[in-house]
Amino acid sequence: MVDEERYMKLVKRHRKKIAAVKDYEALFQNLGAEKAGSITLTSGRMVACPLESIADESRYIEYYYRAPAGTHTVELARSSTGRNAAVRIVFSDAPAVRYELALIGTAEELDCISDLEAGRILFYESCTASPIIVADQGLMPDLLEYLSKNYGGNDYYEKEGKKRLLEKSTCTEAPLCSGLMDFYLEADDAHFPIFFNGEGGGHHPIYWGFDKEDNICCMIFDFDLKELQGNEEPRGRTGSFFKKLRRGDR
Length: 250
Prior knowledge:
The chain is an alpha+beta fold. The chain has helices spanning about 5-15, 25-30, 105-110, 140-150, 155-165, 240-245, and strands spanning about 35-40, 45-50, 60, 70-80, 85-90, 100, 125, 130-135, 180-185, 190-195, 200-210, 215-220. It is globular, with a radius of gyration of 17 Å.
């Protein structure tokens, strides 16, 4: 059980260390953001997981903050080769003035940040070559029931999802590194974005964006494409903190 008061004190204490090292407003402007789908939130508790593991709750990544309820735009930024560079879920029209890692875990795990160097901390979500689905935790039972009834267990990706995603691919050299589809569940009038990691797998950081009033205004999935890094110094891994919070490998 998370000790919320202690957890938030640690978040505030380490805010500079868990801040983004990129300007995502500039990244989306430079690459050209396109509206690619939507996401429907009811409880505001967001989860993400590889689509191939959607029936396995142990693979769910649950984010600590609660996002605003409603149906929100999902934007996609692509690299010049057509790969997915980043996905942004837009909760409000207000621009983000700062970004904070979408941390999970306990206060004890978060306290590991004390020993890490500022600008070197990345909370990575682990994913395979399977696309990622992002959903509201409260809608997952209905989604799972629908997929089980219509596609038999967890076979949606192989039976239909992969084909639909490939139709949206814009990267000829690596088609499973591009594209985003909007899965619609009619029973709940709900949308679920499904998209590939632009590097085809591995780990990537996720950030909450905050406006000048310190309200959550967006969420960023940054696939940290090698082709966009240029001469940047490679960023370090996070030691025990990285291992503890890499929940996607469970």
